[in-house]
# Entry
Amino acid sequence: MSSASQNIEAGKLGDESFMSADDLRAYMTELEMAKASKMLGAMDKAEEARKKLVATLRQEIDVTPEKIAEIKQSLANKTRAAAGRGESEVLVMRFPSALCTDKGRAINNAEADWPTTLTGRPRQAYEFWKEHLQPAKYKLRAMIIDWPGGLPGDVAFFLSWS
# Structure
C-alpha cells in the first residue's frame, strides 16, 4: 500500500471520514450555535406573541347583555363539567402580570386591594365576578402561577364554589 493510500485510509473510520479532535470541537460548536440561534428565534417569537396578547387584553370589550349571557353560559358549562369531575374550582382566566399596575406584586402578597391593580380585560373579569357571581356565593382567587426568571409571570383567576 502506498503512503498516499495509507494517508487516505488513516483519514477514515469504516465508511465515514475521520475528523480530528479540533474539527469535531468546531463541529460541536457550530451545532450548539445553531441550536442557540434557533432557541433565540423561538424566544423572540414567543415574546412578540406575549406583547400582542398584552396589547389585546389591555383593550376592554363591549359589555352588552348578549356578551354577559355568552360569558354566563360558558362559565356554566365549565363549572358543571368541573363539578362532574368532583372539582370545586375552575381556572377561568390566565393573563400576563404585565396587566397589573404593580406587575402582580399585590396578588403575590395577597394584599386586600389587589383588584385595584388590574387593568383591561382582567379588570372587567373581576368586575363581572363582583357583579354577577359573588352574589351567587362564588369565590374568586387570583394567584401568580409561573415565575420566569424568578419574577411573577402569569396570573390565574380561579372561580370556586365550596
About this structure: The first strand starts at residue 12 and ends at 13.
